[in-house]
Design brief:
Elements lengths: L6 H9 L17 H23 L8 H20 L7 H17 L7 H7 L14 H34 L9 H40 L5 H45 L3
Length: 271
């Protein structure tokens, strides 16, 4: 806790450290085992949950669980239908997966900051971060996947020749002197999409996670009557920020899904 040697700074630094293999070091190429494990578990639970509801679906009066899943499906399908006017057999399930999976990963931020680290510490694991979307490696991994889908849909809709023609002739024209400016502008536009996706989600979730750590650290210090007063203030602050944060995690999941649909729809459209 923050009252331990090192105070608030050490407390936050400890909670911001990822679990990495012993042979690995923190850095760009580090494998963050905590982010991978949490995202994988949430993905499996999400798939199993929706599969179970689909398996038990009835044509009559639906159960509460089935009704909730149907609401989510209709909401996501409506968003896809409004933006993408091609074959939705791939993009619909993709959008559903993105929205629910990102929401679940974001929602890990609502757990008490010390809960999962305390549990993993019992098994000899010193560092464990519970929010995969507060890890820039994870958000970039997802955005690069979207980037690859943009490329695939571009070639699928326009063909190799058509896509190359677009890259080198739009938006300034077909004159050979304009090929390089056209390509440079299109390349910047293309690369900005995964960067904006990754940084927006990471920035919001990292900031939210940091606020939870600050609240937990600031209000866990002290002893005696003052310590109990600080602890009570921390619970109130944690609850208020948690309620507000529900809105943030929902909006960020929605934005990531919508931008994924929009970017792929733009790639699919002919110029």
């Amino acid at each position: 806790m923050a009252s331990e040697p090192g105070g608030l700074t050490e407390y936050i630094q400890h909670h911001l450290t990822h679990l990495v293999p012993h042979a690995s070091k923190e850095g760009f190429w580090a494998v963050h085992l905590d982010s991978v494990a949490v995202s994988l578990v949430l993905g499996v639970l999400f798939c199993f949950w929706f599969w179970l509801k689909a398996r038990k679906a009835t044509a009559g009066v639906p159960s509460k669980g089935q009704a909730f899943v149907e609401i989510v499906l209709e909401f996501v399908d409506g968003q896809v239908k409004d933006v993408f006017h091609g074959d939705r057999r791939v993009l619909g399930p993709l959008a559903l997966t993105v929205f629910v999976w990102v929401f679940l990963m974001n929602a890990m931020d609502l757990l008490p900051v010390d809960l999962l680290p305390w549990i993993t510490e019992k098994f000899g694991i010193g560092h464990f971060r519970a929010v995969p979307t507060a890890d820039i490696n994870m958000t970039f991994a997802m955005s690069i996947t979207v980037f690859l889908l943009i490329i695939v849909y571009s070639f699928k809709a326009k063909g190799f020749g058509g896509y190359m023609h677009e890259l080198f002739t739009a938006p300034f024209g077909k004159h050979p002197a304009l090929w390089i400016p056209n390509f440079a502008l299109n390349l910047v536009e293309l690369l900005s999409k995964p960067v904006s996706l990754a940084m927006r989600l990471f920035g919001n979730m990292y900031a939210g996670e940091l606020v939870f750590m600050l609240i937990a650290g600031l209000f866990s210090a002290g002893a005696g009557l003052a310590g109990w007063a600080l602890y009570g203030a921390g619970i109130i602050g944690y609850t208020v920020w948690g309620i507000f944060h529900i809105l943030i995690i929902s909006i960020q999941a929605f934005i990531f899904m919508v931008l994924t649909i929009v970017y792929i729809s733009m790639a699919h459209d002919h110029h």
